[in-house]
Amino acid sequence: DAGVIQSPRHEVTEMGQEVTLRCKPISGHNSLFWYRQTMMRGLELLIYFNNNVPIDDSGMPEDRFSAKMPNASFSTLKIQPSEPRDSAVYFCASSLIQNTEAFFGQGTRLTVV
Amino acid sequence: ELKVEQNPLFLSMQEGKNYTIYCNYSTTSDRLYWYRQDPGKSLESLFVLLSNGAVKQEGRLMASLDTKARLSTLHITAAVHDLSATYFCAVTTSGTYKYIFGTGTRLKVLA
User: Fold this and answer.
1) For A8-35, what is each residue's pLDDT tens digit?
2) Which residues of B touch A43 (CB under 8 A)?
């Protein structure tokens, strides 16, 4: 398996624009997680899905953020409108069951100017 | 709310020395994970500790878990430069699937 695949790897956008980050989890994994990493706040869990259903979105910072998982092999994280403080590295991770580790994608480095 | 704390946050050590990184968590959990992150890279799983008293070793790294003390340690033996990275511990809460990460420990091994 190729692992968790995220796209794009880098995104530079202007404030106010819509940004969509994409993730393909490892085949067969039933849990998917979106994290945001910054120097100031470390690794923050934004939302996680279990069997394509959003379980906990309490980490989503604002209504500008939304996430979907239409099927077991694809998820998106959308920011609309984007702001400079959204600049961070966004990681997607997936896991098979609770007792195993989560596997991380390469991340998307988002810069909002 | 589950909180995971690591110390130290930064660690600079000489090659050949031993040191321990500590991970404390605030609520009941018996599943703990250690990850490594190189600068600009993703997180790589190192160890999965699933029960009280669990000990895992890989090369110069050894991780242990004490669920009663809510404490995990990552021990580094005879450090080498290649171990320079940021190390994270993560905990999943009982009954949920959330992986909550600690603050990370940035390790720099000096030649």
Assistant:
1) 999 999 999 999 999 999 999 999 999 9
2) 88, 101, 104
